[in-house]
């Protein structure tokens, strides 16, 4: 696997547009785990991701720190509807009085999030579900279904790229060479250069790999990850894409080799991943995993998802 050059940027310039990182951890959790981003043009403001419902006040504070009120946002784009990326979309839409662009397969479940919230409560675990809060319904008047095309929001051009795998309703966003991959490229602890897959139950790893290959053909100069920051540089971006494919394949191989022994025991798989994946080992030995309960839970779900996929458990 390819470790990245450690970076920790607050913003990145993309032509005439500036992309600024916003902290979107839920109130009561300080882990630098969830980021939203504001793309600032000369006459328009585009928000990418909202974070969960319980990050709404923190998101407003983060916007104010860069001199923007939520009512000044012209549009919101979501990579997918999972609670950590979109749980606060309904609250944000009502505050900014602006359209929210969502993949067509996910949009109905954000307008009526009852099934989304029930599934999240089952899979996230009590601590994380309570930390995020249930998704707030998105009022229909603000809901917009996306297509694979470029949207012009004032002087900010937003390209939508469908990237299924992590979820069937997953899409990546590209603005002037800055890629917002959602969970398509895993979670990257940018200040260490280490990353891990995001493959919870019902994700399709081969489809994720196909989506990553699709992103390789885009002109990407920087990547702004919802989890956990910005990397700058074409070579670093491609390195991470190639590395994530290798990492997913490694996790699949570990699960295949040890499926009879470990079954669905996540702790059993962890000891073998420490031997097979140097980036997972780095997160463990550096103490980064110990610092973040949200990252710990994500890795737990990702190992469980890989194990269930290998064993054909639906």
From TrEMBL:
InterPro entries: Metallo-B-lactamas, NDM-1-like, RibonucZ/Hydroxyglut_hydro, ST1585_MBL-fold
Pfam families tied to this protein: Lactamase_B (PF00753)
SMART domains on file: Lactamase_B
SUPFAM superfamilies given in the database record: Metallo-hydrolase/oxidoreductase (SSF56281)
Gene3D superfamilies referenced in this protein's UniProt entry, alphabetically: Ribonuclease Z/Hydroxyacylglutathione hydrolase-like (3.60.15.10)
Ranges of residues in domain Metallo-beta-lactamase: 33-227
Stored PANTHER family: METALLO BETA-LACTAMASE SUPERFAMILY LIPOPROTEIN, METALLO-BETA-LACTAMASE DOMAIN-CONTAINING
Protein name: Metallo-beta-lactamase
Organism field: Ignicoccus pacificus DSM 13166
């Amino acid at each position: 696997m390819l470790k990245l050059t450690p970076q920790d940027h607050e913003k990145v310039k993309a032509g005439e547009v500036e992309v600024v990182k916003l902290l979107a951890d839920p109130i009561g959790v300080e882990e630098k785990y969830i980021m939203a981003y504001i793309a600032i043009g000369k006459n328009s403001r585009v928000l990418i991701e909202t974070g969960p419902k319980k990050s709404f006040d923190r998101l407003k504070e983060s916007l104010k720190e860069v001199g923007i009120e939520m009512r000044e946002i012209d549009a919101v784009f979501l990579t997918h509807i999972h609670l950590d990326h979109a749980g606060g979309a309904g609250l944000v839409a009502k505050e900014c009085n602006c359209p929210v662009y969502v993949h067509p397969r996910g949009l109905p479940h954000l307008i009526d999030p009852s099934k989304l919230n029930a599934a999240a409560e089952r899979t996230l675990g009590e601590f994380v579900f309570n930390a995020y809060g249930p998704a707030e319904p998105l009022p229909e008047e603000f809901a917009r279904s996306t297509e694979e095309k470029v949207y012009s929001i004032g002087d900010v051009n937003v390209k939508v790229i469908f990237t299924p795998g992590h979820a069937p309703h997953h899409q990546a966003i590209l603005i002037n060479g800055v890629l917002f991959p959602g969970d398509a490229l895993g979670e990257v602890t940018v200040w260490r250069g280490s990353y891990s897959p995001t493959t919870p139950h019902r994700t399709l790893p081969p489809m994720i790999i196909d989506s990553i290959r699709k992103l390789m053909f885009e002109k990407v100069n920087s990547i702004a990850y919802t989890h956990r920051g910005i990397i700058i540089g074409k070579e670093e971006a491609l390195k991470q894409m190639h590395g994530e494919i290798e990492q997913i394949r490694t996790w699949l191989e570990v699960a295949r080799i040890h499926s009879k022994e470990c079954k669905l025991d996540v702790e059993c798989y962890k000891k073998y991943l420490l031997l097979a994946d140097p980036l997972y080992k780095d997160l463990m030995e550096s103490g980064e995993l110990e610092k973040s309960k949200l990252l710990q839970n994500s890795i737990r779900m990702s190992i469980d998802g890989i194990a269930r996929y290998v064993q054909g458990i639906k």
